[in-house]
Structures are given as C-alpha cells and as structure tokens.
Amino acid sequence: MTKNDIRKSITSKKITDLTSLGTDLAERGLALANKLGKDSTLKSIDKGQNEISLTLSPGVEMVFVRITAGPFLLGISEKKYLQFLVQYFKGKLYESLYKMELGIMKPSFPQHKFHLDEYWISKYPVTYRIYKAFISNTDHSKPLNINDKVVDNNSHPVVDVSWYDARAFCKWAREVSNRRIRLPTESEWEKAARGVDGRYYPWGNQKPDDSLFNYNYFTLKTTTPVGNYSPAGDSPYGCADMIGNVWQWTSSLWGANFLIPKYKYRSEEQDGRENLDAGGDVYRIVRGGSSLDRSMMSVERNFLVFNRGKYLPDFINGDIGFRCVLTM
Q1: Residue 130 placed within a domain
Q2: How confident is the model at residue 101 (pLDDT cuts 50, 70, 90)?
Q3: How far apart are CA 20 and CA 1, in angstroms?
Q4: Which DSSP symbol is given to 201?
Q5: Count of domains for the chain
Q6: Biggest alpha carbon distance in the chain?
Q7: Which of 285, 209, 199, 207 is nearest to 244 (CA)?
Q8: pLDDT digits (tens, 9 = 90+) for 184-209
Q9: Which of 236, 214, 233 minimizes the C-alpha distance to 156?
Q10: For residues 12-30, b (16+ Cβ closer than 10 Å) or e, as one string?
Q11: Are 251 and 278 in contact (CB under 8 A)?
Q12: What gap in Å lies between CA 204 and CA 72, rounded to an integer?
C-alpha cells in the first residue's frame, strides 16, 4: 500500500468516525429533547385543546386557558355607556350625575375593534398555594398577611403584592417552566374577560348579583376561593374571577397623571405603554375591581369589564392580586 493509499484510508476513517460521532450526538440530542419533552412541565398541546396545566413545583400547578387569535370589541362608546346608565338606573340619576359618570368612564372611550394573536391566560388569579411555592424557592419577601388565618385556605388569591412582586413571580415561573410567562397586557386581560362581543360583564349583560362574583367583602370579611362562582360567573373562555374578589395587575402603563391617562384606550401596544422599565412614579393599569368596591357609585358600574383602575407599581393592598399570561 502506498503512502497515498494510507493517507486516503486514514482520511476516510476520520470522516466515517466524524459522521458516526455527529449521528451519535444528534441521536443523543434528540433523546434529550424527547426526555425533556416528557419531563416538561407542559405536555404537547392539541389544536382543539383549550385548557392546559403547567407544573411550577412538585404538587403545584397553574391552569391556563386558550384565548384564540382575532379581533374583539375593546372599551365602550360614550353613546353605549349612556344607554347603560339609563338602562340600569332607570332615570334615578340627575343630569349632573350622568355628566359626571361620562367623565369618569371617559378613559374607556371609544369602543373599537382590536386584534390580538393567540395567547393563554391563567384560569384563576394566582393563589396563595402557588405564590408560596415561589416564596419557598426564592429569597423574595413574603406578602404581609401570608400567614393570616383568614387566608389559611391556599385556594384564595394572593394579595398584598405589588406590580414588582407580580413581575418577579412571572420571572420565576418562566425560569422553572422554561415557558414564556408574563403579566397580561390590559387588552389581553379585557379580551379574556369579555370575549369578542362587547358585553358588560364576563357572563353577559345580565345585572350582577352575589351568585356571580364576590363584591361583598364587608359581609364575608375575606376574599373567596378562586373558582367559587364558576361556571356561572366565568368569561366566554372559561376564565374565573375576572371581576370582583381582587384587582389584577397588568403590564400596561396608565401614565404619570392620576386623572388623565397618557395612553388612550385605542390600545396600540407598540406606543410605549408596555415599557417595563418605566419609573416608579408612573401608574400601572389594574383591572377587574375587588370585593372592596361595592360602595361608591354602584355594583353595576364598578365591575364593568372595561373599567380601568391604576396604582403606582410599588403599591400593595389587601385587594390587589394578579394572573399570568403564557405565550407559545
């Protein structure tokens, strides 16, 4: 055998070995991917599947529901809100009060179609059980009343959490699940709450009562377990506790002026309203109302799905919680 033949033979063997090694590594990578897929916190999703469960910690899961892509009616028009006032209060308001009400709800004008891509939103607000898993696996500070006997039931929504706390939870959930989890935008929250037909409440336009949601903290003296009013009070997508019980943080900005929103309700989400690095002096949107909001104007108005609330991001209170969004 000549030197040339020997060189060719060695080169051929190296190529064969490298090809074999590449195939082996590819197979190992595929096996690892399959293993990770099997061990993943989220199983594969069928096209027709509308609910999934995500494991965040042993024995701790979050349920998400699918919100399909497409347009929906966001907000309310001034004309429709005036019709709502007349319908629900039947002439019991003075003309000056009608004008005041239109001014209060002005940040929710106008009603318009808005398109969202598909996303998933947690079926319930984050509960103490889930939040405790976050606390026990990180060095994040505890909410003020996490050991309160009144909320010893882990199925109640966690409260006394700031916007920063809610974001920190989402970051942890994203890391442990390897899934894209975050707070919902204001428009994502609203679509999940009302569907596509412009209804007033998650269940439709039926006047609210205490069989549909918790607006009665002063009698109950506590929040209620999530899903307590399901399915009667659920949204068209099956989301529970979208109104009442606790306010819910969104990622969206209101602006620095408490009375006048910088970001109008024609929600173009690329206009800066989703700036996560805005300062602590800029208000963030909360949605849904809480069981403490029974007074003021009325139950009918306070819990409309287009009613916009706002707090500074470091604000905490016993009626503010949150839910999460998952995108694929």
Answers
A1: yes
A2: confident
A3: 26
A4: B
A5: 1
A6: 109
A7: 209
A8: 999 999 999 999 999 999 999 998 88
A9: 214
A10: eeeeeeeeeeeeeeeeeee
A11: no
A12: 15
Domain with 216 in it:
54-71+119-327
Given this model, what pLDDT does residue 45 score?
Answer: 67
What are the tokens at 50? Answer: 């509308």
Region 257-262: mean pLDDT is: 92
Query: For the whole prediction, is pTM greater than 0.85?
Result: no
Cβ neighbours of residue 198 closer than 8 Å, sequence gap 6 or more: 72, 73, 76, 80, 111
Q: What is the pLDDT of residues 55-74, one digit of tens each?
A: 999 999 999 999 999 999 99
- One-letter-per-residue 3-state SS of 124-158: CCCEHHHHHHHHHCCCCCCCCCCCCHHHCCCCCEC
pLDDT at position 24 is 46
User: For position 219, what pLDDT does the model report?
Assistant: 64
As a whole number of angstroms, the distance between CA 290 and CA 203 comes to 17
- Asked if residue 259 is part of any domain, the answer here is yes
Tell me the C-alpha distance between 36 and 40, whole Å.
Answer: 5
Q: Which amino acid is at 228?
A: N
